[in-house]
Amino acid sequence: MDEDLPVEPVDVLILVVVSVVGGVGLASLTLAPAPTPNFAVAVLSGTVLLAFFLFIPVMGVRLLLEERKETDQNA
């Protein structure tokens, strides 16, 4: 591939939403949900973990959808 892969704002928004929701879910599995600093740290840790590991799959899905759209337009 010769062209760079630009990150679009929609991709970042999807990644942030999925990471925050997943971070809250992971924190809820490990701690009882309560407005405590420990729970907040668990949410942030889960969010960062998911954002780190989900960046490449989110970009891969976007590439797949763009390729499919291009092949549909060319056909």
Description of the structure:
With 75 residues, this protein is an all-alpha fold. Helices cover 80% and strands 0% of the residues. It is built from 2 helices and no strands. It has helices at 9-30, 37-74. α1 packs antiparallel against α2 (37-74). The chain is elongated. The relative contact order is 0.15. The model has no long low-confidence stretch (mean pLDDT 84).
What key phrases describe this protein's structure?
75 residues; mainly alpha; 2 helices; 80% helix; elongated
Give the end-to-end Cα distance, rounded to a whole number of Å.
22 Å
Largest sheet report = none
Low-confidence stretches: none
How many individual helices? 2
Oligomer: single chain
Q: Give helix % range.
A: over 70%
- Kindly name the structural category: mainly alpha
Overall pLDDT: 84
- How many DSSP-defined strands? 0
- Rg (C-alpha, Å): 17 Å
Quick one: overall form?
Answer: elongated
The helix/strand order is HH
Bin the strand percentage: under 5%
